[in-house]
Specification:
This protein has helices spanning 10-14, 31-48, 77-90, 106-123, 128-140, 152-163, 171-182, 186-197, 201-218, 245-253, 267-289, 294-300, 309-315, 321-341, 346-362, 368-375, 389-395, 400-403, 421-430, and strands at 6-9, 18-19, 56-65, 71-75, 142-149. With 434 residues, the protein is of the alpha/beta class. It has two domains: 6-163, no CATH class; 171-434, no CATH class. Strand 3 (56-65) and strand 4 (71-75) form a beta hairpin. The termini are far apart.
């Protein structure tokens, strides 16, 4: 590449001879992205008052300088246009070349209009002094890394390396970075890093993907998709300084967590991850060591006695995808139950296991979409039980509401597929049917 990266302020970037080439995709940032940008700038302003020469970088921009000495935006269009909207509101006299661009795409037009409205509404409740402070931040605090190249093939090569090569950050990696930023005591930060780095990254990812995120959604009777960076707001917690009632309540509740409730941002995030990894491990150990759950253990492991939670997890690898979906549903329900009531009532555990396994019995083919529908209680004639059990647990006053829950078997002695007739027979025996 023939250009080294440079650090420019947002103000300096916007004043360049920028253009948007025809190959660029539409502008898709929404009011949520705009609000996050404003809050990030607000926070950076607060930090700049504590530390000399404080700067806040909002990413990397790739520009192609063409033969007309124009800077084509190759990567960073969303941030640049959003920053321009903010700059235009803060400084009504601001002019730049980018304003000459004709935005013909309907999606772009709508999002530009809606996002400017969001900015105008946000600043309608502050005076001109605050606007001046924000405008100054765009000149002196908020920065971007700018890489400029003279050949378009180099620009696309660089764009490709920036966006497709290497491992993208997982959502929980982004959360780690966010919450470390919320910790202001260096000893707390060191402790959080040590606690995080001592864990298997795969185990952290599975905790969010298979348990925490599905439970959060199913408790609210919402379908659950993949846990992505778009969902991390759920686990950003709440800053105690805002004085919200639920923030005070969460602060006083520590060190007690609830899967469906928020927590204080910062070090409590790392405590929360540690707490639920340990709880999940203890739950699996209980299933394989408590004689009362021996029948459940044998069903889960296809008749094998295992000695540890790790062996239990390994036994999943030799099973069908559909059966593993049902097993994960059981452990989601059990984790939610134990999190709320902190006991292993034998009848309650059997009810949760039967509910989760019956969806395997009822379906010839079982995928995650069916698990989603079943978990939130969507009516279907194929299901023996239509109950949003995780939501029921979330709002139950006593654990006996779960242990006393009525579950139905099928109208005959056969599963929907003969492959699961033996499993169905085991479930019937577990529930006292001859």
């Amino acid at each position: 590449m023939n250009s080294k990266p440079h650090i420019w302020s947002i103000d300096k970037l916007l004043r360049k001879n920028l253009i948007i080439p025809d190959y660029q995709r539409p502008y898709k940032w929404t009011d949520k992205n705009i609000t996050e940008l404003i809050l990030d700038i607000q926070k950076s302003i607060e930090e700049s008052r504590k530390y000399d020469n404080f700067k806040y970088r909002i990413g990397t921009v790739i520009l192609h300088r063409n033969e007309n000495n124009e800077y084509e935006i190759v990567d960073g269009q969303q941030r640049i246009l959003s920053s321009l909207l903010l700059k235009l509101h803060l400084d009504s006299n601001f002019m730049c070349n980018l304003l000459n661009n004709k935005f013909l795409n309907k999606i772009t037009q709508k999002n530009l209009h809606d996002n400017y409205t969001t900015i105008r509404e946000w600043f309608s409740s502050v005076d001109d002094t605050v606007k001046a402070i924000f405008n100054d931040a765009l000149k002196n605090i908020i920065e971007v890394v700018v890489i400029t190249v003279n050949r378009i093939d180099e620009a696309f090569q660089l764009f490709d390396s920036q966006n497709t090569r290497g491992r993208a950050l997982y959502p929980h990696d982004l959360l780690k970075a966010y919450h470390l930023r919320e910790i202001h005591d260096k000893y707390e930060m060191q402790n959080a890093v040590v606690k995080w780095e001592s864990k298997d990254p795969k185990a952290i990812r599975e905790l969010f993907d298979l348990y925490l995120f599905p439970i959060w959604n199913w408790a609210k009777c919402l379908k659950c998709g993949n846990f992505t960076s778009a969902d991390i707001d759920i686990y950003k917690g709440i800053e105690e300084k805002y004085g919200y009632t639920y923030a005070r309540r969460a602060s006083k509740a520590m060190p007690y967590f609830l899967l469906t409730e928020s927590f204080i941002s910062g070090s409590d995030f790392f405590e929360m991850v540690d707490h639920y990894m340990q709880m999940l491990h203890n739950i699996k150990e209980e299933i394989i060591t408590n004689p009362a759950f021996h029948d459940i253990e044998l069903i889960i492991t296809n008749g094998k006695d295992v000695d540890s939670a790790e062996e239990l997890d390994k036994s999943f690898k030799s099973s069908s995808v559909g059966l593993n979906h049902a097993r994960n549903l059981f452990f989601c329900a059990l984790l939610c139950y134990y999190d709320r009531f902190h006991n292993f009532d034998v009848m309650a555990v059997k009810k949760l296991f039967t509910w989760a396994m019956m969806i395997r019995i009822d379906m010839q083919h079982l995928g995650f979409d069916t698990i989603n529908r079943y978990a939130i209680g969507i009516e279907d004639d194929k299901y023996s039980n239509v109950k949003p059990v995780i939501s029921i647990i979330t709002y139950a006053r006593r654990h006996t509401e779960i242990s006393g829950m009525r579950l139905d078997m099928r109208n005959d002695d056969k599963a929907a597929s003969e492959n699961w007739n033996n499993l169905y027979a085991q479930l019937r025996q577990l529930n006292g049917y001859n």
